[in-house]
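Dear Dr. H.,

I hope your travels went smoothly. While you were away I took the liberty of generating a structure for the chain from your last submission, since the lab meeting agenda had it listed for discussion. I wanted you to have the full record in hand beforehand rather than looking at slides cold. The sequence, exactly as received, is reproduced here:
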Amino acid sequence: MPQKIAIIMGAGPAGLTAALELLTHTDIRPIVLEKSTYMGGISRTLNYKGNRMDVGGHRFFSKSDRVMEWWLNVLPMERNATGEQQIAYHGASRTVGGAPQPGPDPATEDRVMLVRNRKSRIYFLSKFFDYPISLSKDTLVKLGLSRTVRIGFSYVKSAAFPIKAVKSLEDFFINRFGKELYLTFFKEYTEKVWGIACSQISAEWGQQRIKGLSITKTISHYIRKQFRREGGISQKATETSLIERFLYPKYGPGQMWEEVSRQIRAKGGEILTGVEVTSLEMDGDRVTAVTAVDSASGEERKFAGDYFFSTLPIKELIRSMEVEKPPRILEISDGLIYRDFITVGILLRKLKITEGHPSANKLITDNWIYIQEPNVLAGRLQIFNNWSPYMVADQNNAWIGVEYFCYETDEIWTMPDADMAELAKLELHKIGIIDQAEVLDSVVYRMPKTYPAYFGTYDQFDELRAYLDQVQNLFLVGRNGMHKYNNQDHSMLTAMTAVENIAQGRTDKSNIWAVNTEMEYHEAKERQKVEEGSGVPQPAKVG
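The corresponding predicted structure, in token form, is as follows:
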């Protein structure tokens, strides 16, 4: 009997996870087709003259034991001063490293996960505020008495009289934090990210990305922190936005996915780069093959398979399906919106901002800074030195990434690289973060379709999902594949769940869509409890 084949469209976290899971748990051989020449999708690492850039910033943290174990099986965790590290799971702990096989030393070995401290702050009114906002003395002093009182009364009002019909992200924020705090710290940045008013964005975005975070949890977390001893990194009971320690590959997130791709090939899987999927051949409610074009030669090649995984943007997937699509499905698909992303890497001798202590030249310890200032387009700033010291060729320099959110139709998307870099330098100089005279070099990188948007035709997305779910051997996984604002670990879990379904002969796909829908991540045993059926009305059969 011939070996079954899975065609995987896209070599991001979801696609590569699916490939390795298939090789580990089934007899199915994966063939991964990747449009670009690199691994990891938006979780890639760029290398510019020995200085590495993380596109968007990727903390390796998950409340899923399965994902944490998976990562550490690929890249083991560094040893600490005693030669071992502890990670707590569900209140128990296990030791990684220690005799007889201590964890690798990052000073001498490359295949290693670092344990990093998380620090993010908001830059507003030319001052730093903790992120998430903590009601510390420092925060209250910087806000001023008048604004603090307004925030307090506003929160009490929202707690006592919440908006009952929460329809928009603005409603969600006001209910969760009060109108005054929303206007102070959430509205400006969120609208920079999405380019649209919060009142026009679905509340589902907040439910996906913020979940249980609230003022009450922020205060209780702050209080517990004062009495807590240093512990493991799992922090399973902690809201994701409050996580204080995380894992990070020595050379950035792309190192993880380069290593995964090496293992896939070593186990007999195939990965082709520089090939773009242009069409899917259909036979009733099944995909039979895909056609891909080699970007270098222009040659077309057909790949037949038994199972098909798509991480393609749904808009592209629908257009590629060689079947008569209902006008309604095309209308919804074409109306899906994506937000695009630009990172400007800037190498400089030092930052102008400091930690405020006598060592004025000391690099601040933030991983990233949310730029809340309304008079600049820049939305966020990464300091790559603090993600991993090995990301920077010369530790005497500061290596930062200035992040812009836009659409491909915006002027800055098509702006020449030199002009885009100049804009970033001018903006950071204007708000007092850098002195332009200290800049040594710069580079510009653009990433299209980074953020699937929760507006446009998204409110009709269930119809599109139901249409695609009926294609029996097609599995949508990952962020763009599901048009769902997933983190890296969520994307991996969707792929793991899809592979489990294939191995178990399960045809219903509701458990794949359930990942990152509930308040906690789904462990394997919890996924088995998900009720059969999605509750979504079924349209006419494809084709």
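Two observations you may find useful: Residues 31 and 270 are 5 Å apart (CA to CA). The chain has three domains: 5-39+257-336+456-527, 133-218, 338-452.

With kind regards,
E. W.
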